[in-house]
Amino acid sequence: MPTVVVLLMLAFVQALSDQLLIFASLASSAFLVYLDPEHPTNRVRTFLIAQGSAALLGFASVSVLGTGFLAAGVTMVLTLAIIITLDAIHPPAMSTALSFAFRRNSLKTLVIFGLAMLVITFLVVLQKAAFGWCRKQVPPPSIYK
């Protein structure tokens, strides 16, 4: 399932944008979130805060400072401060911060990145709902029979 989600997400992004490198960290996020969605690092809340703040800060840094190491450094420090403060540590977000900081980005790229995050979130919620439904349909085995 994680591979299918990543491939669909990349196809979606390819159709709308020519900046695939920026979306590489979302592939890592999708894999981690599907691998163990209950781990604190992989929860949807953590994913949204970390990836969202990294993208926004990277975009803002480049807009103010231009592309390069200064923008990357500022973005990394601010992203780390936010994700630690909000207890939303998600390692792939650092790749997002750097990807946005090293390349002149358009608002269109930021919007598409946000939409891709929402697609991943929707699919995780759908997966949890499906698992919940399946658990209700099949009762747990009784060890006392």
Tell me what you see in this structure.
The radius of gyration is 17 Å and the shape is elongated. The protein has one domain. The chain has 145 residues and is an all-alpha fold. Helix 1 packs antiparallel against helix 6 (107-137). Helix content is 74%, strand content 0%. It has 6 helices and no strands.
Share of helix, binned = over 70%
Number of domains: 1
Taken from the alpha-carbon principal axes, the silhouette is elongated
Oligomer: single chain
Question: What is Rg?
Answer: 17 Å
Q: What are the segments in which pLDDT stays under 50 over at least 5 consecutive residues?
A: none
Distance between the ends = 35 Å
Mean pLDDT: 83
The description of the largest β-sheet is:
none
* SSE order: HHHHHH
Portion in beta strands: under 5%
List the keywords.
mainly alpha, 145 residues, 74% helix
Secondary structure layout plus pairing:
Blueprint: H1 2-16, H2 24-35, H3 44-65, H4 69-85, H5 92-101, H6 107-137
What is this entry, summarized?
The protein is mainly alpha-helical.
